[in-house]
Amino acid sequence: MRPVAVGLVGAGPWGSGFHAPMLAAGPQTRLAGVWSRRPERAREVAARFAVPAFEDYDLLLDACEAVAFAVPPEVQVSMAVRAARAGRAVLLEKPLAPDLAGATALAEAVDAAGVPTQLMLTRRYRPQVREFLDRARRFRARGAQARHLTDELFSAAYATPWRRRQGVLDDFGFHALDLLDAALGTVKDVMAVGDPHGYMALTCVHEGEGAVSQLALCGSIGSPHGHHKTVELYGREGALVLDFRELADDSAPTRENVRSEFAATVRSGVPHTVDVHHGLHLQRLLEQARSQLRGVGDGP
Q1: Are 172 and 165 in contact (CB under 8 A)?
Q2: Is 3.40.50.720 the CATH number for 4-122+251-269?
């Protein structure tokens, strides 16, 4: 199969550290070029991989078959709409947009253009997480608890301004809610309490047999034992546990999964199972949670 030519939008830590090397590694894809709001950063990243840097976004679109995004949601939404209207498949970041209206508009634009999409929920491409989800589908869970308790919102390399502004829901909440949705069945309702810039909790009701899950979120908490990122399912068989601290380093196969599946999505024209509409489903739930927290925690 001819490698898919993918243009990269974004040259920050995530774009330069994950997307660019993943797309350039091939053989399913090749990095066709880089665009950034900061042209000097685009040139730096492009030079590392011997590809063009573009200051004109339209020229990047002309040079590629698909576009991967590694930019804040307020930047992604308009540029992804332009890519879709140009007939380019898109590899999207979460959240899709800074608000539900923007996410809905993006999904509608993608549908109108008829281009395939895939969502960059990294944990869903990790082999060991996929093994857990395979077991979860055979495990008759009555309920679940998940935790994402870290200091990453303010201290990690990816503590970018939009994450600090939006709080834990749009970043960690997206990942954690997605895993609960995949493990227990579609989440149909959420209830939220707490502070999105501090410590908060969600209670989720799932379709089917009505399983209930609970999620604790905090991005500004430290621990002598490290971060707490877990998903625990409970049923008559006992418990099924995913603890991210116990997972082996699987960065290489994770990137391979993203790359090969995006290439297959582009070539087949069939949206990935984790696509723009799955992202819109999760964003609706997060907006439901956020509406219950209006006025709580105005910022860090």
Answers
A1: no
A2: yes
E strands, 4-140, are 4-9, 29-35, 53-54, 66-69, 89-92, 117-119
pTM for the full model? Answer: 0.94
On the question of a common fold for 4-122+251-269 and 127-243+284-291, the answer reads no
Q: What is the DSSP letter of 125?
A: G
Take residue 18 and report the two structure tokens written for it.
Answer: 């994950």
Instruction: Please report, for the chain, the start and end positions of each structural domain, with discontinuous segments joined by +.
Output: 4-122+251-269, 127-243+284-291
Is CATH 3.90.226.10 the right assignment for the domain spanning 127-243+284-291?
A: no
Q: 297 pLDDT exceeds 60?
A: no
Residue 210 confidence (pLDDT): 86
Burial of 288 (0-12, 13-18, 19+ CB in 10 A): middle
CB-neighbour burial class of residue 113 (10 A; exposed 0-12, middle 13-18, buried 19+)? middle
Cβ count near 10 (within 10 Å): 27
Could you report the per-residue pLDDT of 93-118, keeping only the tens digit for each? 999 999 999 999 999 999 999 999 99
Name, in order, each residue with C-beta under 8 angstroms of 203's C-beta and a sequence gap of 6 or more.
Answer: 190, 191, 192, 212, 213, 214, 215
- Do 53 and 23 meet the contact criterion of CB atoms below 8 Å apart? no
Position 47, amino acid = A
Angstrom CA distances, 39 to 19, 47, 67, 93, 143, stand at: 17, 12, 18, 21, 49
% of the chain residues with pLDDT over 90: 84
Query: Who contacts 238 (Cβ-Cβ below 8 Å, separation ≥6)?
Result: none
In sequence order, which residues have a C-beta less than 8 Å from that of residue 166 and are 6 or more positions away?
98, 196
